[in-house]
TrEMBL record:
Alphabetical keyword list: Transferase
Transmembrane regions: none
Domain Glycosyltransferase 2-like residues, every copy: 131-255
Gene Ontology MF annotations: transferase activity
PANTHER family named among the record's database cross-references: GLYCOSYLTRANSFERASE (PTHR43685), GLYCOSYLTRANSFERASE 2-LIKE DOMAIN-CONTAINING PROTEIN (PTHR43685:SF2)
Species per Swiss-Prot/TrEMBL record: Mycoplana dimorpha
Name of the protein described by the UniProt record: Glycosyl transferase family 2
Length: 430
């Protein structure tokens, strides 16, 4: 229900749901008999989910064409996920097309995503500062993995701002331990949970970088992620860009291999990660200002807003930059406000999407700024998405990014050329 709107209880008839189920089964049968190159990997994925990946790989090999044959490596990785050596070999065979440094598995305890490593081809110590924002809630099992993947970036001029959003586990302790080890890490603790986008806005107010991006506390970043995105942004003279990800379950199985309806789908495997959005800070401040202060969906809203506000929109860089963990406790998989692999957007997300798109449609490209704190909404939002303004105001009044000893984390103010990393760059046109 939208805040301020009347409830509408219109359950879909049972016969309509039954027809849709039958339609999906017929469509799946047709795809198996006469697969198009565009649908080959998604159809093989469905076969794998239903009948096992041994059958999925055999079917894909029988029907594959040259333009999608590389995707079968991911199906093989799913088939061989219990064999770590075979799994990483298949994964690297797929990723070779993107030119990133190959992955290896560390001889360590933990799931496959915790063991991922890669050695970058070069190290960049001289360049503009990048602010990386990481919001975390009860992420003690993954935050160290996620943060260390950022701390291992080949692009060294960055700061990592971690927002613990009212966690009740050991997340905060791990974040402060990381800050003790590395001066580029600064930490803020929210007394109450206000959601990831309020957390990002809080961090943004303290960010020092010439560029800003995010990284989720349960994802693994390739060490060349920032390097490749910054170079792409400069080469294309852009204000914002997105890069690619793979979705993976905790057991190492790659998930959500589907073309879907989204324009950014590439081969059914590589998808463009909303959290990878990297912005030139000056353009962000002039045209966008902040994320919408809601509990879900604000990534998509911001990207769509940037598409309208920036002269060149948000260009997609078709390269691999991260692995996003697909697990039952993630925001994406929330049963009431998430994005179901089979059924698509939840009702609440559909409502939110419709409302923000209506606002975008009636706004000029110069009037798409979002305030923070947000005392008056620019468009209606479902009740499930709304964060109480009292909680936001309290978080704002108590926000500071500290080291464990209570002082602001030291950060080298000059780079190898003796310049401030936050200013030694050529401004880009938005």
């Amino acid at each position: 229900m939208l805040v301020g709107s009347k409830p509408a209880n219109r359950p879909k008839p049972t016969w309509r749901r039954a027809l849709r189920t039958i339609g999906r089964k017929i469509s799946f049968w047709q795809q198996q008999q006469w697969p198009s190159s565009r649908r080959l990997i998604p159809t093989a994925y469905e076969i794998g989910e239903r009948n096992g990946y041994q059958k999925a790989v055999a079917w894909a090999e029988r029907h594959s064409s040259v333009d999608v044959s590389h995707g079968i490596h991911v199906l093989r990785a799913n088939r061989d996920k219990a064999d770590a050596a075979a799994w990483i070999t298949h994964l690297n065979a797929y990723l070779a097309q993107y030119g990133t440094s190959p992955l290896v598995l560390a001889d360590a305890q933990g799931s496959l995503i915790h063991r991922l490593r890669s050695t970058p081809k070069k190290i960049i110590t001289d360049g503009p500062l990048v602010s990386v924002i990481m919001c975390a809630y009860n992420a003690q099992d993954t935050i160290e993995m996620a943060a260390r993947s950022i701390l291992s970036q080949s692009w060294r001029p960055f700061e990592l701002l971690i927002v613990d959003d009212g966690s009740t586990d050991g997340t905060a302790a791990i974040a402060f331990q990381l800050a003790r080890e590395d001066a580029r890490v600064r930490v803020h603790l929210n007394a109450a949970n206000v959601g990831p986008y309020v957390g990002r806005n809080l961090a943004l107010r303290h960010a020092r970088g010439a560029y800003v991006t995010c990284h989720d506390a349960d994802d693994w970043a390739h060490p060349e992620r920032l390097e490749h995105q910054i170079e792409f942004l400069h080469r294309k003279q852009l204000a914002g860009t997105l890069s690619g990800m793979l979705r993976m379950r905790v057991n190492g199985q790659f998930a959500r291999l589907t073309t879907g309806r989204r324009k950014e789908r590439n081969d059914g495997i590589l998808q463009f990660a909303a959290a990878s959005a990297l912005f030139e800070r000056k353009a962000f401040d002039v045209h966008l200002q902040y994320w919408d202060s809601v509990r879900f969906g604000a990534d998509s809203e911001l990207i769509d807003r940037a598409e309208l506000a920036f002269r060149h929109g948000m260009q997609r860089q078709v390269t691999f930059s991260m692995i996003c963990l697909d697990h039952e406790n993630s925001l994406t998989n929330h049963p009431e406000t998430g994005l179901s692999e089979r059924h698509g957007l939840s009702k609440a997300r559909k409502l939110y999407s419709a409302e923000y798109k209506a606002w975008h449609a009636q706004s000029s490209s110069s009037s798409l700024k979002m305030d923070f704190p947000q005392y008056e909404r620019r468009f209606k939002a479902p009740a499930e998405a709304v964060v109480r303004i009292e909680d936001v105001s309290h978080a704002v009044s108590n926000s500071s990014f500290d080291t464990p000893n209570g002082g602001l984390a030291p950060f080298p103010r000059v780079n190898a050329s003796g310049q401030n990393p936050a200013t030694c760059f050529t401004p880009l046109n938005a």
